[in-house]
Amino acid sequence: MEMLLHTKRITICLFFFVLSLAAAIEIPLSVAQLPTITEQSHTQVAYPFDEDFTIKCEARGNPQPTFNWTKDGKPFNLLSDPRIITFNNSGTFVIQNHGIISNFQGKYRCYASNALGTAMSEEIELIVPSVPKFPKEKIEPLDVEHGDSVILHCNPPKGIPPLHIYWMNIDLQHIPQDERVSMSLKGDLYFANVEENDSRSDYCCFAAFPRLRTIVQKMPMTLKVSRFKHANDSGSPNAAVTKANFIKERKPKLLIPPESAGSSSSVTVIKGGVLLLECIAEGLPTPHLSWVKVTGNLPKDKSVKENFGKILKIEQVSAADEGTYQCTASNPMGRTKHEFHVHVEEPPRWIKEPEGGVYSVGTNLVLLCEAIGNPEPTIQWKLNGMPIDSRTFRGRISAREISLTNLQLQDSAVYQCEASNKHGTILASANVNVLNIAPLILTSDGENYATVVGYSAFLHCEFFASPAADIRWTKDDSVETLSALRYELNKNGTLEIKETKKDDSGSYACWASNSVGKRAITANLDIRDATKIVITPKNPRVLKSHSILLKCQSEYDSHLKNSFKLSWRKDGDQLPVNSTQDSRIIVDMDTLFISSVTLEDQGVYMCVASTSLDSVVAESRLIVLDVPDPPEDLQLSEHQNRSVRLSWKAGASHNSPVNESIIEYEESQWEPGRWQELTQVPGNDTTALLTLAPYMNYQFRVVSVNAVGRSQPSKPSLRYATPPAAPDKNPENIRVEASEPNEMVMKWEPLKPTERNGPGLEYKVSWRQRGVETDWNEELVKKHSLTLRNTPTFVPYEIKVQAVNNLGTGPEPNVTTGYSGEDTPDAAPSGVSVDIVNSTLVKVFWFGIPRDRVRGHLKGYKVSWWKTKSMLDGKRHHPEKHHLTFVGDRNYGMIPGLEPFSEFRLTVLAYNSKGDGPESSPVVFETPEGVPEQPRFLKILNFDKDSVTLSWGLPKKANGHLTGYILQYQIINETHEIGPLSDISVANRSTLSWRLSGLSASTKYKFYVKACTAKGCGNPVTEEGLTMAQGTYAGIYDGISTQGWFIGLMCAVALLTLLLLTICFVRRNKGGKYSVKEKEDLHPDPEAQSIKDEIFGEYSDSDEKPLKGSLRSINGDIKATESADSLVDYGEGEHGMFNEDGSFIGAYSGSKEKGSVESTGSSTATFPLHA
C-alpha cells in the first residue's frame, strides 16, 4: 500500500517531527515500566436524579497495575458496600444511587501499583448534596412607620451553586426594585425608606438551584406601613405626611457593610475570579451610591456597577486590582463612607514540574519542583505515593529538588510533588524508569513507501532503547551510511530524503545499536511522477451575462490512476461536483461552466488535483466586466449666469476603466422629461464646467462609459435656472420656396428652445429686390416663414432674418439671395439635328434656349423619339414614345437602343423645377441596316453514316434584307479537342435546310448556322450530333434478342405504342376537318412563331414534331428539293422524335457542347450509339 510521505511546507515537517519525538520517549508497553495514571475524575456532584455516579481511575504499566483507593486520607475498601460496582484491571468504580448515599461524600485518591512502583491520582471530591428546603416557620408581620428602613430576610437554604434568588408576590409578579428598594447579594430585600404603597402581605422569596433542577419558596411575609402616629392631630392628611417625612428625614446609614464592621473591611479575591463589593444604605431621602478606587483609578474596561450602583463588579481580577475601594452613600442630609481593602490571592500553580523519563544504569537523576501562589504554597515530595523519609532516602532531597547519582535498576519509581496553600492543592508526577535493554524497532519490517519526484520522502524507523541507540541508514547492497545533504536523520529514527529523484527508488535498511544489542529493518521506496495541471483560459475577462468554460488539463503517474481526483474551488470554498446554482454553474470533472456570468462570480477559481501521494493547485482569476455603476452625489457649484460646475462621485468601474462621462440635461420649460446630451468629459474626470443657455431651468445627470458600455444614468441633480438674455444667434438655412410664379415664400430653420434666450421670441424679416430697390422691407413674424405675393417671376431678392425677444435683438444677420417663383420655360430648343453613329445609336444636337426664357433654374433637356415605320416591310407603327433626360445646361446627347433599318421622329425640350417647356419641331431620321439576330432554331432531321440533313428557322429579327446563310461544322470529341471548321455559303435566302455529305462515320460533329445581311452575319445557332456505323442494329440485338426480359419489354412497348396511336386517332376524329390546321403548319405566322420561339426556344432539342404522315425512320432520306416551308411547319411541337424501335430520342439529349465556337440559343441533339 502506497503511503503519502511528502510535504511542501515546513510546518508539516515540524508536525511529523514533534509526533515522532513524543513517540520515541514513550516506552512501549512490552517493556517493563512504572504505572502511569492515564484518566481520572475530578470534582463530581452526585445529583439526586442520576441513577449512578462514576469515579474514574485508569492507568497503564508493565506489569499490569493494581488499584487502591483512599477516602479523606484513609484506606477505602471498594468491596465494603454492595452498591459499589468495580471492573477488572481498572480502578474505576460506580456508586449506584440506592438509599442514603451521603456517607459517600468525601475526597478520594487512587493508587495504581505494580512491582516497579506506585502512581497516585489527584484528589477527587464527591459532593452529595441534600435537597434544599426552606424551614417551615411562622413569620410575624412587620408594622413600620412611613419613612423607616426595613430588611426582609430570605436566608436561602444551602445547595449546589449557582443560586438565583427572586422576590415576587403570590401571583409570581416581581417586586419592583430601584435605588430605594433592592436585593442584596445574600438575597435579603432592603428598603432604604418605606412608603405606604409598600404595604402588602405576600412578599415571597424564591431560591432557584438550576443544577439541582429545584426552586423553593419561603413563606410569605407581611409588611404594614402606617403614617406617623404623632400627626393625628393635624387636620390635613397631606400635611401629616409632610410633617412625618420632615421628622423622619435623616442622613444615610450603611446597612451593608453594617456599622459594626467599622469604617473599613478586608476582602480577599482569587486571581482570575470576580470581585463583588456591595454597599446598601438607608436614609430619607433615598441615598445615592458612588464608587472610587482610593489607591488608583477604577479599571474602565472591566469594572461595572450593578443593582442601581450598589454593587461594584470587576471580572478577571489581576494583581493590579489590589488596593482600597470606597463607596459613598449620600443624600441632602449628609453622607457616609466605607472602605474595602482588597487583597488578591491565588491557588498554587507550577513554575517547574518534575519530568520523568527513561534512564540508563549508572546515570544521574535531578527532579525539580517549583510552584507559586498567594499565600506561598508548601512543597511535599512523595515516593510511590508515600512521603519520602529523608533519613532512609539514599539521594538528596530539598523543598524544590531531588537528586540521585549512579542510578540502578531498583531506583525505578514514581516521584510525586504536591504544592498546597489554603486555596488548593496541585499534584505532579514523574516516572523514573531505569532500563538496560537492547534496541527495539517499533516500525514494521519491509514497509513500502512511495512519493513523487521533487517531494520529500519519510522512511520511518521508530525505536526504543536504553542506553540510547545509534541509528544509521543504508541503501540497497551498500554498507555506507547515507550522509549526503539531501538525507536528514531525525531523532526518532525517521530518514527524510529531500527533493527526491527517480533514482532514489530502491531498498533501504535502518540499523539501531547500543551497548546491549543491535537490530535492523528494511524499507522499500518507489518514486512516481509528479502530478501537473493547467487551467485554461488563464485569468479570463468575461462580460457580464456571457458564459465561460474553464478546463483543467492534468497529467499524473499511471500508477496513481485509481487515486486521482479533481475538484474545483472558488475563493477557497469547495464547489460540489455536478452542482447547479440557479442552473448556471455546472462542475463536471475537469470542466467548470458558468452561464450568465454575474459580478458575484468574480474571484479565484482553483482546480485541485490530488493523488494518494501529492496534491497540486492551479488558479485562474475570473474577471467579470460590466458597465460602470451610475455616478453618485451630484453637486452644483460656481454658479454663473451662463455656466455652473457639476461634480460627482464615480461608481464602480467593474474592471473596465471609465473612458468618458456623458453629461445630460433636462429643462422643464420647453421639453420637460426629455434628456439631451450636453457635453462629454474624458477619462476619470469627475467635475466639469458646463456652458449653459439663458432662460432655461436645468437639471443634470451623468452617464459613465467604459469599454463594455454605458452605465445607468445617475440620479438627477438639483435644478438650476439661468436668467434670460437677448438672442445670441439668428436663424440658419434661409431659403426661398415658391409654388406659384408670382409669389415668394421665405423659410428658415427656427431657433431651438435652448437658443431662444428669453421670452417673446420673434423673427424680423428684411427683403429687397436685388439691383432695383435700395430700402429694406421689414416685417416681424412669429412663424419661421413669410410669403410675398405679386412678385415678378424669377427675379433675385436679398433677404435677411434676425432673431428678436423681449430683452433685445440678435447679432446683425447675413444677407442671403433668393429668387421669386418660377414658371415653366416658354421657348423650345432650336437647330435640332441627328448624326447616325450605327444602326442602333445616334447623336442628337440642339441649341439651348435663352436664359431669360427658362423662367427658373434650368434643370436640363429631355429628348423624345418614336418609331414611325420599318424600312424592311414599309409598315407603319403605332407611335410609342421613348424619353431620355440630360441633366444640366448642355447641347447634345446619345440615344442608344434603336432598332436598325427603321424610321424615327425626335423632339427636344427644356425643363426647370416648375416643369417642361414646349417641344421642338420633330426631326425625321432613319437607322441603317444591321446584322440579323441568330436563327430561331437548328434541327438535325436525318443522320447517316456519312451525311446529315440540317433544318433551321428564320432569324428572330432580320434587321435588314437577308442575303443568305453561312453553314459551318467541325469534328469534336470527348477530350475537348476540335477539328478544323468547314464553311458552306447558302446564297438563297429562302433556303432553310441543307444536306451535308462526305462526313466520317461514328463521328461527333458540331454544326453552326448564322443569317447574313449586307451589313454582315449575326450570331450562330448550334447543334451537336453523332454519325452512325453500318450494322448498328444487328450488333445491339444479337446479344439480347434471345433474353426473356427483352422479349417481355418489347411486347410492353408495342402494346403501349398501339394504345397511344388509338388515342390519337380517336382525338383526331373528334376534331373534325383539319384544312385550317394543315395550312397553319405549312405557312406559320412569323409573329406567332416568334412568340413560340421565345417561350420554347431553349427546349428546341426535345420539342420537335415529326413530319406529317407516318413515322419516318431516322435513316430515311430527305431531299433538299422538298419544300422548306414544310420543314418549318414541323420545326416545333409537343412530341419528340422516335427511332426505329420506338424509343424516345430526347432521352439521349443534353450532352455538353465541346466546340470552341459557342453562341446563345444553341441546342444539342445527341443520337444513340450502336457499337
TrEMBL record:
Residue ranges, compositional bias (Polar residues): 1157-1171
Question: Fibronectin type-III domain spans which residues?
Answer: 630-725, 730-823, 828-930, 931-1031
Specify whether Magnesium is a keyword of the entry.
Answer: no
One term of GO molecular function: cell-cell adhesion mediator activity
Read off the InterPro entries from this record.
Answer: FN3_dom, FN3_sf, Ig-like_dom, Ig-like_dom_sf, Ig-like_fold, Ig_I-set, Ig_sub, Ig_sub2
Query: Where are the annotated coiled coils located?
Result: none
Q: Known CDD domains for this protein?
A: FN3 (cd00063), Ig3_L1-CAM_like (cd05731), IgI_2_L1-CAM_like (cd05845)
Q: Where is the signal peptide?
A: 1-24
Q: Where in the cell is it found?
A: Cell membrane; Secreted, Extracellular space, Extracellular matrix
Q: How does it sit in the membrane?
A: Single-pass type I membrane protein
- The answer to whether keyword Plastid applies is no
Quote any Pfam family the record assigns.
Ig_3
Question: Which superkingdom?
Answer: Eukaryota
What does the subunit comment say? Answer: May interact with L1CAM. May interact with ITGB1/ITGA1 heterodimer and ITGB1/ITGA2 heterodimer as well as with ANK3.
> Can you tell me which family this protein belongs to?
Belongs to the immunoglobulin superfamily. L1/neurofascin/NgCAM family.
What PANTHER family does the annotation carry?
Answer: NEURAL CELL ADHESION MOLECULE L1-LIKE PROTEIN ISOFORM X1, PROTEIN SIDEKICK
Protein name, entry field = Neural cell adhesion molecule L1-like protein
Organism, scientific name = Aythya fuligula (Tufted duck)
